[in-house]
């Protein structure tokens, strides 16, 4: 019934006849509105920048761009659920290359909560399916754990070190010596100024000699030192490369959500996200204030 | 002989005790099994199965004229809404019994996403949006005239409700199609479906049906058209394993292999799995549990991801026929009646489902019993647990 | 025959790993024949046949279950008690549930593996 009403109201607005009187009215309002446009334009620029940032901070709010999976109602409901989860638990801003600590309630050992520290080597999925892969070396044993961001068994997600790396995925750390993915599980949170740009770690990883899990020479990696392979490997990689794809506008369009739609999505949830950010900041201040009392 | 002669007296002549047939006449000859030669068509289309979409020509309408048409459509809508408001819509519901059959609804499959249960388990759910369903017409068993030709007794004693969904611009449809809705006064709908109901479950035309027709925790059957995959081989169509890629195998990597034996059964048995057209047929998935209902957007979350059709496909949702999953508690019969003053939550959850606005604190084991089982502290927190 | 890494401190396992002759799986005690987390396997190690339990796998796991860089095994003797006295790598916490389910009265007590584990992930 609600659908009918909404559709009905829409049709009414579109079908209203524009009489001469109303035309005159609109003309008058246009002139007064013109002065406001300049002011609005500046505001729009600011909000546009904020929206563009959201794309990087909250990438999982963008839906799967495949047209056969799109549905506006489903996407809206999914976003609502994500927001309501985010209002309960602080899911911080993080990128591939950040060091995270995830505390989960462990079903197999109910007495204790389980905490895992590691470097984020991959972020994938969108909507409620969003997940990230953490890697660490514990007792000389490489361990990877996949966490779902909206899993209710997660109690806390902390960003111990906020930084970016040169690549979008760090799966090559599996083929790198262990020291590159070894992090102290008792590491303390490294301070990061609010609003400061996220530092980029330009470390170049030296991979172990072949055999590898993947053919890294074909992946166009930036965060890796010279692989030291014979010429034929690079030749083959050159043959298989598809450098023209970045000019394929149609392909890019199909693979991404258009900018206008992105802005629409983030404009819809902007106020909620801002509220969440404000409460997070408040809590942070609270924590810093509480520290000295603990020492005493 | 006497019968024949009496029938064809005009066209025959008896001369010298022999029968002569006049060349210009025809003779009635008895043919055995004649009913098979020109049988009555077994399948007759239901009355609502007319041509739906009108061929849209460029009619060179002026701006004013096309606006006038829109205005007429708008007026019709207002009129039909008024009529339906004035009409006495069913007010009292009947107590439900297990043998009674309710109507189903037309819904749209809008996607798949996970939900979590209170024990931390993740489940996949499909979202079905119940469209603006309205009852168009009731067909009594005699009137409906089941599609299969009646031989002997009538098996189906249930009448059916014709239900339409998704209001559309009536100028897009043919006159025949619009006439279906004329009697009821409902604006023509894009989708039609019929649902068999028991005599007590008849709804007056124009009654809206919402997602509240169903209850959380009950099971439903969902019927839809599967994705059309075209002509496919046995590996894709029936999940055969195919044959080895090497070891001397030539040209038979994805073939089915043998389809029958020799000897007495030297033929292909009916129903043998072979290549052919896959998909684009109706399929019913039974016994799907409803985990959550959104009353604002009329969305049902049902378990599983195997619901036929692609995203945005139209499906029909029924109460389940599986005897063990039929509801135990009474359900609104013949349908949930909307009351304007009633206040209900936007989201209704099954008791097992985790609400995203809540938080699972920790896992606690019961040490009283020797067997361990999990109890969850379920606490609502205002903002971030701390 | 997949090669495994012995992660307990049993003499046999330590020597096998030091010599670069890791144990090889010759049988998996389940119905699929594919070794999963917590499955018992029969391994060939230094000319002997030993049973062992898989306590860490390379294969992709579900969320929250760790994936390791090597396939780890803990060796058992004939009675089902672990050969070593300590496990020097982390053990997934899922094994607490899996091994408990596998253990039944008058059968092999797999939970002994949990008691010799040093860390859980």
TrEMBL record, chain A:
Give UniProt keywords alphabetically.
Mitochondrion, Ribonucleoprotein, Ribosomal protein, Transit peptide
Compartments where found? Mitochondrion
State a single Gene Ontology molecular function: structural constituent of ribosome
Any Pfam family the entry gives: Ribosomal_L19
**BP GO annotations:** translation
Lyase found in the keyword field? no
Q: Which cellular component terms (GO) are annotated to the entry?
A: mitochondrial large ribosomal subunit
> Which family is this protein grouped under?
Belongs to the bacterial ribosomal protein bL19 family.
Q: What is this protein called?
A: Large ribosomal subunit protein bL19m
Question: What is the native source organism of this protein?
Answer: Popillia japonica (Japanese beetle)
Where is the organism placed in the taxonomic lineage, from the top?
Answer: Eukaryota, Metazoa, Ecdysozoa, Arthropoda, Hexapoda
UniProtKB/TrEMBL annotation, chain B:
Instruction: Supply the InterPro entries for this chain.
Output: Ribosomal_uL3, Ribosomal_uL3_bac/org-type, Transl_B-barrel_sf
Q: Which GO terms describe its molecular function?
A: structural constituent of ribosome
Cell wall biogenesis/degradation listed as a keyword: no
Q: Which Gene3D superfamilies match?
A: Translation factors (2.40.30.10)
Identify the SUPFAM superfamilies for this entry. Answer: Translation proteins
Q: Which UniProt keywords apply?
A: Ribonucleoprotein, Ribosomal protein
One of the protein's GO biological processes: translation
Please list where the region (Disordered) is annotated.
Answer: 242-271
| Leader sequence residues | none
GO CC terms in record: mitochondrial large ribosomal subunit
- Origin, by domain of life? Eukaryota
Q: Which family does it belong to?
A: Belongs to the universal ribosomal protein uL3 family.
Q: What is this protein called?
A: Large ribosomal subunit protein uL3m
Supply the source organism for this entry. Answer: Popillia japonica
TrEMBL record, chain C:
Q: What CDD domains does the record point to?
A: Ribosomal_uL14
- Please cite one Gene Ontology biological process associated with this protein: translation
Question: What does the UniProt keyword field contain?
Answer: Mitochondrion, Ribonucleoprotein, Ribosomal protein, Transit peptide
Q: Which Gene Ontology cellular component terms are annotated?
A: mitochondrial inner membrane; ribonucleoprotein complex; ribosome
Q: Where in the cell is it found?
A: Mitochondrion
Q: Which SMART domains does the entry link to? A: Ribosomal_L14
Any one GO molecular-function label of the UniProt entry: structural constituent of ribosome
Matching entries from Gene3D superfamilies are given as: Ribosomal protein L14
Q: Does the keyword Hydrolase apply?
A: no
Q: Which domain of life is it from?
A: Eukaryota
The family note in this entry says: Belongs to the universal ribosomal protein uL14 family.
Q: Which HAMAP family match?
A: Ribosomal_uL14
- Name assigned to this protein: Large ribosomal subunit protein uL14m
Species of provenance = Popillia japonica
């Amino acid at each position: 019934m609600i659908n009918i009403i909404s559709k009905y109201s829409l049709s009414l607005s579109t079908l209203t006849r524009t009489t001469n009187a109303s035309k005159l009215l609109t003309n008058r309002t246009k002139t007064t509105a013109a002065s406001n446009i300049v002011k609005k334009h500046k505001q729009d620029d600011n909000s546009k920048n904020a929206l563009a940032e959201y794309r990087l901070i909250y990438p999982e709010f963008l839906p799967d761009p495949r047209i056969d999976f799109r549905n506006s109602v489903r996407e809206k409901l999914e976003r609502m659920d994500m927001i309501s989860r985010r209002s309960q638990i602080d899911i911080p801003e993080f990128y591939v290359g950040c060091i995270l600590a995830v505390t989960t309630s462990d079903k197999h050992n109910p007495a204790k909560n389980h905490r895992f520290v590691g470097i984020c080597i991959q972020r994938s999925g969108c909507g409620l399916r969003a997940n990230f892969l953490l890697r660490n070396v514990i007792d000389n044993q490489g361990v990877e754990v996949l966490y779902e961001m909206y899993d209710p068994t997660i109690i806390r997600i902390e960003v111990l070190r906020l930084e970016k790396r040169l690549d979008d995925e760090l799966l090559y750390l599996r083929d790198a010596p262990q020291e590159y993915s070894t992090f102290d599980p008792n590491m303390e949170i490294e301070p990061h100024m609010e609003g400061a740009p996220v530092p980029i770690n330009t470390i170049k990883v030296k991979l172990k000699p072949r055999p590898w899990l993947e053919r890294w020479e074909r992946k166009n990696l930036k965060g890796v030192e010279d692989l030291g392979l014979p010429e034929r490997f690079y030749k083959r990689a050159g043959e298989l490369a598809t450098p023209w794809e970045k000019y394929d506008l149609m392909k890019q369009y199909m693979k991404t959500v258009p900018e206008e739609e992105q802005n629409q999505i983030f404009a819809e949830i902007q106020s909620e996200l801002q509220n969440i950010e404000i409460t997070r900041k408040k809590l942070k201040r609270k924590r810093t204030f509480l520290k000295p009392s603990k020492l005493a | 002989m006497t019968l024949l002669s009496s029938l064809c007296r005009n066209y025959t002549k008896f001369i010298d005790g022999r029968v002569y047939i006049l060349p210009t006449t025809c003779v009635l000859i008895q043919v055995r099994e004649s009913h098979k030669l020109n049988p009555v068509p077994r399948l007759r289309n239901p009355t609502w199965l007319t041509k739906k979409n009108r061929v849209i020509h460029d009619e060179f309408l002026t701006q004013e004229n096309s606006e006038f048409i829109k205005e007429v459509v708008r007026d019709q809508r207002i009129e039909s809404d008024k009529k339906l408001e004035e009409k006495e819509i069913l007010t009292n519901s009947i107590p439900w019994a297990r043998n009674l059959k309710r109507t189903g609804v037309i819904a749209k499959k809008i996607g798949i996403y996970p939900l979590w249960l209170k024990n931390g388990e993740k489940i996949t759910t499909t979202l079905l949006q119940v469209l603006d369903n309205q009852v168009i017409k009731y067909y009594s068993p005699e009137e409906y005239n089941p599609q299969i030709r009646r031989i002997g007794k009538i098996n189906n004693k249930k009448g059916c409700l014709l239900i339409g969904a998704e209001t559309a611009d009536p100028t897009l449809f043919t006159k025949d199609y619009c006439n279906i809705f004329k009697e009821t006064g409902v604006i023509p709908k894009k989708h039609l479906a019929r649902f068999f109901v028991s005599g007590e479950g008849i709804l007056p035309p124009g009654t809206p049906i919402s997602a509240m027709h169903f209850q959380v925790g009950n099971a439903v059957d969902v019927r839809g058209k599967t994705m059309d995959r075209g002509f496919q081989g046995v590996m894709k169509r029936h999940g055969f394993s195919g044959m080895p890629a090497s070891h001397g195998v030539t040209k038979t990597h994805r073939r089915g292999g043998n389809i029958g034996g020799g000897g007495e059964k030297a033929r292909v048995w009916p129903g043998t799995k072979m290549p052919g057209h896959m998909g684009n047929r109706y399929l019913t998935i039974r016994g799907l549990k409803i985990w959550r209902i959104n009353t604002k957007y009329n969305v049902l979350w049902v378990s599983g991801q195997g619901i036929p059709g692609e995203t945005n496909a139209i499906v029909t949702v029924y109460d389940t026929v599986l005897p063990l999953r039929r509801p135990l508690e009474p359900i609104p019969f013949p349908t949930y009646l909307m009351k304007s003053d009633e206040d209900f939550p936007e989201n209704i959850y099954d008791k097992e489902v985790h609400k995203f606005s809540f938080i699972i604190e920790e896992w606690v084991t019961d040490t009283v019993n020797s067997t361990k089982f999990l109890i969850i502290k379920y606490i609502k927190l205002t903002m971030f647990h701390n | 025959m997949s090669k495994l890494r012995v992660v307990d401190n049993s003499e046999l396992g330590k020597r096998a790993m030091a010599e670069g002759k890791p144990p090889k799986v010759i049988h998996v005690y389940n119905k699929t024949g594919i070794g999963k987390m917590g499955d018992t396997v029969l391994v060939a190690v230094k000319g002997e046949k030993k049973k062992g339990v898989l306590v860490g796998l390379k294969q992709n796991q579900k969320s929250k279950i760790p994936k390791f860089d090597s396939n780890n095994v803990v060796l058992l003797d004939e009675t089902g008690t672990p050969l070593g006295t300590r496990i020097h790598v982390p053990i997934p916490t899922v094994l607490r549930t899996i091994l408990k389910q596998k253990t039944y009265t008058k059968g092999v007590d797999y939970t002994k593996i949990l008691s010799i584990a040093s860390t859980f992930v």
